[in-house]
Amino acid sequence: MSTAMVRIRVLLARPWIWSFLGALAVWLAAELFTGGQGAGELLTATLSFAVFMVIVGIGQMFVISTGPGNVDLSIPATIALTGAVAMKTMGGADAMILPGMLAALAAGAFVGACNYGLIRLLRIPPIIATMSANFLVMSTAIAYGRGLKVKPPPLFADFTTAQVAGIPVLAICTAIFAAVMGVVLHRTVYGRSVHAIGQNRRAARLAGVAVDRTRFLVYVLSATFAGLCGALLAGFSGGSSLSAGETYLLASIAVVVIGGTSVAGGRGNVPGIWGAALFMYLLEAMLNTYGAGAGLRLILTGLIIILVITIAGGDRPQR
Amino acid sequence: MTGKKTLVAAVAVTLALGAGTALADTAAKKIALSNNYAGNSWRQAMLKSWDKVTKKAVADGIVAEASAFTTAENQATEQAAQIQNMILQGYDAIVLNAASPTALNGAVKQACDAGIVVVSFDGVVTEPCAWRIAVDFKKMGAIQLDYLAKRMPKGGNVLEIRGLAGVFVDDEIHAGIEAGVKKNAQFKIVGSVHGDWAQEVAQKAVAGILPSLPQVDAVVTQGGDGYGAAQAFKAAGRPIPLIIMGNRQDELTWWKEQKDANGYETMSVSIAPGVGTLAFWVAQQILDGVDVPKDMIVPFLQIDQGNLEANLATTEAGGVANVEYSLDDAKKAIASTK
Predict the structure, then answer these.
(1) Is A71 exposed, middle or buried (0-12, 13-18, 19+ CB in 10 A)?
(2) Which of A96, A308, B127, B204 allows an S-S link to B108, with CB 3.0 to 4.6 Å?
């Protein structure tokens, strides 16, 4: 076997490669229809919107990696609330950008802490706890913002929409952010602890892993990232709104799973989230380009996601 | 003391209703609002209008109670259960913005059988025993094309932003737009996306389809999506086409900015969230013994280049351009339907 073949084999064994291949295939399919017109612009648009999915996806990935049943369903409301918190704190003034960001992150972290409080202290399963938290946070967002759309400060709006040679600045920042989180997941004691808990919580505890602290932190992390997403999204789309986070509930889980993270926990994957976020956006854009009706589009979206996961899920059974 | 108050109120109501009508005996009546969703600016404005108008009606002694209830999940089953609760709680009338035109019919029928007046609006129900205050959504789609035909006699490429897939309002407006394109054949729909009546969703969907489209001359919308579309065109570095707006404050503000900067001209059309208050008065009138036709059509609220500033001034930040109905407005609306 030549070394090139070996390289390809090694590459194909990576769980994340399939989401990128899927994204590439969908992009080519879209360009086939338009004859290559606007290929670059489509990539720019894709990168602009994938950023937000990646940010919440990484948080969700940490949660899902801690084992079966762990999921954060409070992301949509957290995005709505933190977007409003960020915009209201900034109040349209450039000088208040930093305090606004910090306030959004703090609000997110607080939601995360409450989530884990419900899970640990009241012993509610995460799926129920975070779902109820979603309602509570949404009500808070409604009461706090009253559906108010406060414009972002000009500097913040410019930053969130800025591009360098067709590449959104936010995408570059998020790529660096993802790389850092990849290192955290795979190279630090904390990341290893997350995986250890996901593989077997009891064994991890017996091995001396601080299970409670680690789990507490993943929920805080996830909600804080949702806060980051909420603030940036509000800047990007010209103001916060109650419905800003609605599409990120299932999308955040989908990008994690399509990206090659094990739903059973214990095996997280950061690069795959990028591939999956690009894939998800391109898929919708491609189907829209082809003029598929809403019904057909949903069916095809479902089928194509199943296809990608089936192909990507070709890894050996673990035991 | 209380007796005196009631008497004063009853007299006041009788006077308010005028000598010709039947004696107002709705002072002891309880009306409930069953609402399926609260998560956007339109619904927030609707609930606010309801609160404002009904609070005054209760204070004036016209009705005893007018509480608003919103379901958490925007699901028909949940709303059916909510209606059943209202039946048990003994409300005299239920004003309903329904999650589904058909799925609530069972619960609505139960309410009717229990002698409860059911008035549906915006999201209306097909159950014959209920009243319907509907908007001519088809016309709302068709007039957009008529407006475009006036502005661009030569026609052009149109991008359509639809609402939430599977909801009948979306199908109706879409049908109206299709009819409009048929009538004004110089226009061609070059692309269609679902914006779910939300700025973020619309922005995302439009940004995705734009690269594949030829020059877009106009964008037809369903409301709540115009500002997002404008953002997407701006981000793509494309010239901003004529975008029909949907009466949201952010859309009107953006329009005003463009108008001042470069004379941008468009129109805006949507339903006033205050239609809920019309439904309230209709329910009150039915309880009062007034004969009201089962089907009423309410006009939509259209904003033009000329009255943009006036409408923007009365629309609160983050809200929707609104018209609240008084009892007299409701009476006029009922009379014009008869």
Answers:
(1) buried
(2) B127
